[in-house]
Design brief:
This protein is of the alpha+beta class. Helices cover 28% and strands 17% of the residues. The strands form three sheets. The protein has a three-stranded antiparallel β-sheet with strand order 2-3-5. Strands 1-4 form a two-stranded antiparallel sheet. It has a two-stranded antiparallel ribbon with strand order 6-7. Strand 6 and strand 7 form a beta hairpin. The longest helix is centred in the N-terminal third of the chain and has 12 residues. The termini are far apart.
């Protein structure tokens, strides 16, 4: 008899679960969901690719620059990529709406291109340092720092060595 009393009480009370997908639901604070990539902040260090637990991140060289690809199907939403991204180009959002049809699984990707820039001295192509990273490391954009950020690593090294009067610099 005790079972019937509990049954009727639960029927009168109604469902105690979330009404999703037939009604509104809530997103818990701090939920790790879809990844957002900001290519303007990326420095191309590839640390996110190295630490990705699911192997969901890949960088490829292209004529335009460094091509970033992240597959949401393989992502474990562990947050390691966001944690180790120094310029904060990767951010885990609270968007958890990732349901999709089986035929769309290869389209569930996040992409971006970290564009190459021409060196102001030699004209060679290089990935420029992120403005966010320069601000974080050096605390601002002095004129010398802005000038050096327009040079490829080889020209930067030569210019810095020439300023220090290192023999053989500027070759």
């Amino acid at each position: 008899m005790n079972f019937i009393r509990i049954l009727f009480r639960n029927l009168l009370k109604g469902p105690s679960t979330d009404p999703f997908p037939f009604g509104e639901t809530f997103t818990p604070k701090g939920l790790r969901g879809r990844i957002d990539f900001d290519q303007s902040k990326c420095s191309g260090c590839r640390m996110c690719e190295h630490v990705c637990a699911g192997g969901a991140i890949r960088f490829d060289d292209s004529p335009e620059g460094l091509q970033f690809t992240l597959w949401h199907n393989s992502c474990t939403f562990c947050g390691l990529c966001e944690h180790y991204c120094i310029p904060r180009a990767i951010h885990l959002t609270e968007d958890w709406h990732l349901a999709h049809k089986q035929e769309d699984k290869y389209r569930m990707i996040e992409q971006g291109t970290v564009a190459y820039r021409a060196c102001a001295s030699c004209g060679g192509r290089f990935i420029p340092p992120s403005a966010t990273l320069l601000e974080k490391v050096y605390g601002g954009g002095s004129d010398a720092l802005v000038e050096l950020s327009r040079l490829c690593p080889d020209c930067r090294r030569s210019r810095s060595a020439a300023r220090l009067n290192v023999p053989g610099a500027g070759l």
